[in-house]
Write a structure and sequence with these properties.
The complex is a heterodimer of chains A (268) and B (276). Chain A has 268 residues and is mainly α. Helix content of chain A is 70%, strand content 3%. The model of chain A is unreliable at 1-8 (pLDDT under 50). Chain B has one domain: P-loop containing nucleotide triphosphate hydrolases (Rossmann fold), CATH 3.40.50. Chain B is built from 9 helices and 10 strands. In chain B, strands 6-7-8-3-9-10 form a 6-stranded mixed β-sheet, sandwiched between helices. Chain B has a 4-stranded antiparallel β-sheet with strand order 2-1-4-5, covered by helices on one side. Classes of the chains: A mainly alpha (268), B alpha/beta (276). Chain A binds chain B through residues 133-134, 162-163, 165-166, 169-170, 173, 214-215, 218-219, 221-229, 233-239, and chain B through 51, 54, 56, 78, 81-82, 85-86, 88, 90, 92-99, 101-102, 105-115, 118-119, 122, 138-140, 154-155, 158. The structure holds adenosine-5'-diphosphate and magnesium ion. Chain B: Its main location: membrane.
């Protein structure tokens, strides 16, 4: 009844060049990609970036429908953006449908934004489909750890994410169990108005919170028993290391990004 | 050697008259390679005792020593925690990481070992508990018994000398329980085991049995010695193991049936067959 995949992300465990990259390289790639996508202004640049992303999807051995699936929640937004631009750009009208004007300039602008959003999602998807949640957490910790010097809790943040990832499925199972138990006692979660439904969640949430606190307490004791004392002096089973492929990937990405930016400035 | 010397503990403020005394003068020793079962009903102080073994709680009076190190000495606390591994009751609440092998690595990671050494220990520990092929699995996809075995692997990877299990079998189905007990039987050669339970049947395997009630050790000895109390065991909120109950009933009517109390069906059958 709860979509686990929504919360956990859609990692596809394959063995590909993209999967083997250091998670930090991929996070870097996404960050730079997003900035580039917001700066470029020409179709040529979009074409270049789009081509590059397609190449990466192929390198990742990902079926294209996986990538398209991640766009699905966006259809409405994309369609709306396009319509707004097409119909409400105060511009030379191409065609007139009564009071509706179809604007050519608006159409272009709308398509521009759609292309930008689509590429944005594809770039992010390239990260989430090829990087397991653990790697992602390790990567974020690795990238943030230079900030530790100024007191930023990089390790604690990563540990929180790990524990959240570990316990989300457990808590979902538990929510399911409590819900069934409460339904067996005649509590109705599925009908009634909005307020009634919200109020109906109380018999679910209260036991769930009580048990979550109990778990948190047990977990803290278990972690302490296993010599956990924060990030100090802690090593990892898998230490992150930049390999030659990471440098190659990052250089290539940088090249493509710079190229598309210059194309955009040249043609604009 | 892990030793408790006249350990007193109560929850709450120091001289609070409402404070419940959870331990009242507990003394015992656990040697390496020994398998001790601690029996006690709910609320008798079992978990409180378990938490004293690695300094999660420290005695209000008396002392707990692990290989000569006092648990009250902060400077050796981590070494004590490495030497004494604790496994808890709820299999869901003691696995920390998102995959089995990452979880087993958690302890060695905290010890600051180099990655190659961690790798070696994780593989060893998982092989030891028979979970090697599950190493990439997520904890929530495992059965209760498997989760407990992973928890034990997580402790073994720190190379402990003592293993304390606080009702680790309580939430398992009979099959998972049997697997876990089998594993403990295999581990007893190398580590001292303190297995805490309220299931008397599990005490039959022990080198030594202790009974705790109301914060005090009320009986201690080999399973044969302890279960000789017979029906009196009920005053501590426990029952006799089935085989012992049968044997004691027979013994009452045929006083010369056994020379020693049988602890397994085989021993009982042997005794019956040789009776003339
Ligand atoms: N955190 C706590 N605060 C106050 N009293 C506690 C706490 N934990 C346990 N107790 C009390 O201490 C006694 C022993 O508890 P415990 O060691 O958990 O027993 P067992 O594990 O044998 O069931 C019980 O009377 C219990 O109510
Ligand atoms: Mg207990």
């Amino acid at each position: 009844m709860f979509g686990k995949s929504v919360v956990i992300g859609q990692y596809v465990p394959l063995d590909s060049a993209m999967h083997r990259l250091d998670p930090r390289s991929k996070i870097f790639f996404v960050a730079l990609g997003i900035v580039t996508l917001f700066l470029v202004q020409s179709w040529l640049s979009f074409a270049l970036l789009g081509g590059f992303f397609v190449l990466l999807v192929l390198l990742a051995h990902l079926p294209f429908q996986y990538v398209l699936k991640s766009l699905r929640p966006l259809w409405v937004l994309l369609a709306l953006t396009l319509c707004l631009h097409v119909f409400f750009t105060p511009d030379d009208a191409l065609v007139l449908f009564g009071f509706l004007r179809v604007s050519l300039g608006g159409l272009f602008k709308g398509l521009f934004i759609v292309a930008r959003l689509v590429l944005l999602v594809v770039a992010t998807t390239l990260l989430t489909l090829t990087t397991s949640p653990i790697e992602l957490t390790d990567g974020i910790e690795g990238l943030l750890s230079p900030l530790k010097r100024w007191g930023f809790p990089a390790h604690e943040l990563a540990m929180m994410m790990t524990i959240a990832l570990r316990f989300i499925p457990t808590l979902l199972e538990e929510a399911d169990r409590i819900m069934k138990a409460q339904m067996a006692r005649g509590i109705d979660f599925e009908s009634g108005g909005f307020m009634k439904r919200i109020r109906g969640l109380i018999p679910l949430l209260v036991p769930l919170f009580v048990s979550a606190f109990r778990r948190a307490e047990d977990l803290a004791v278990a972690m302490e028993s296993r010599c956990y004392r924060g990030g100090i002096g802690r090593t990892r089973l898998r230490m992150l290391r930049f390999e030659r492929r990471d440098y190659a990937f990052l250089s290539l990405s940088l090249l493509v990004f710079v190229l598309s930016l210059s194309l955009s400035w040249l043609t604009w | 050697m892990m030793c408790f010397e006249d350990v007193h503990f109560w929850y709450g403020e120091k001289e609070d008259p409402r404070a419940v005394a959870a331990l009242r003068g507990v003394s015992f020793v656990l040697r390496e390679g020994e398998f001790v079962v601690l029996l006690g009903r709910n609320g008798s102080g079992k978990s409180t005792l378990a938490k004293h073994c690695n300094g999660l709680l420290v005695p209000r009076k008396g002392r707990v020593c692990v290989d000569g190190m006092d648990t009250r000495d902060e400077s050796v606390l981590w070494e004590i925690r490495r030497r004494v591994g604790l496994v808890f009751q709820n299999p869901d609440n003691q696995l920390i990481a998102t995959t089995v092998e990452e979880d087993v690595a958690f302890g060695p990671e905290n010890l600051g070992l180099p990655p190659s050494e961690i790798r070696k220990r994780v593989d060893e520990a998982l092989a030891r508990v028979g979970m090697s092929e599950y190493r990439k699995r997520e904890p929530h996809t495992l059965s209760g018994g498997q989760k407990q075995r992973v928890a034990i692997a997580g402790v073994l990877a720190m190379h402990p000398k003592y293993l304390v299990l606080d009702e680790a079998t309580a939430m398992l189905d009979p099959e998972g329980r049997e697997e876990l007990l089998q594993l403990l039987r295999e581990l007893r050669k190398d580590v001292g085991i303190l297995h805490i339970t309220h299931n008397v049947e599990e005490a039959l395997l022990a080198d030594r049995v202790m009974v705790i009630d109301n914060g005090e050790i009320v009986a201690e000895g080999s399973p044969r010695e302890v279960f000789l109390v017979g029906k009196d065991i009920e005053k501590w909120g426990l029952e006799l193991p089935q085989i012992v109950e049968v044997a004691l009933l027979l013994w009452k009517d045929y006083p010369d049936l056994f020379s020693v109390l049988p602890l397994s069906p085989d021993e009982l059958v042997d005794a019956l067959c040789s009776y003339s």
